[in-house]
Design a protein that fits this description.
Helices cover 5% and strands 57% of the residues. It is mostly beta strands and 251 residues long. It has 2 domains: 106 residues, no CATH class; 106 residues, no CATH class.
Length: 251
Amino acid sequence: MGVLILGICNAAAMASTGSQQEFRRSYALAAGGRVVIDNPYGDVSINAWDRDEVRVEAIKCASDSRRLNDAQIVVDSTSDSLSIYTYYAAADAAHPASVAYRITVPRTANIENVRLVNGGLSVRGLRGAVKATSINGDIRAEMLEGTADLSTVNGQVAADFHRISPANAISLRSVNGPIVLSIPSGTGAQLVAQNRSGGILTDFGRREFAEHGHRFHAILKGGGAEIHLENVNGGISIHSTWSRRHERAVL
């Protein structure tokens, strides 16, 4: 998604008389450090690497070049925490600049909070915790190993886990959009999924019809991590990485 968000920004700039600005900085961050991101307009892509530093790359785009300076990238950095904010000087602007971020963090970093309004999130390869919310945008996570709390209002939530520890709870939520969960075969978990419409597809047992929709509950391999999936309008798909990885997810 890192390449994708830059491509969208370039396309928006070329389709108008506007322009764009680039931002590139690196910041030291200790292993297990905390990262907070707040971006009202634009996508965010987070990838992991084996360095004790964070690389922040961003592109600001606007149809009107005067709007570029209205969107200010603010970074607060300490040895164990990093906060990245997009601040808008003209809060009531009709067509604000968008900011697309590509952020690379230590593999053991904890993504304490990502807050998006009009934009999606892609995150890959983290061992630490991830918490993220969006209003209008998909959330896609791959190769995670830690606690995850991912939610959106209008969009899909798709999460793939490389490893699941009994101590690491997982929560995936959407209002209008499907949820797709992929977990390693042999995972021990207490799994609960429910929705109102769209159905539930699983590899792990029979679904139930609840009073106001569908519900699925299973104890896998004697129990373990607590996994909760909930949406209103949209299918839920739960599968093992070895079986239905490429099957159509939404009923």
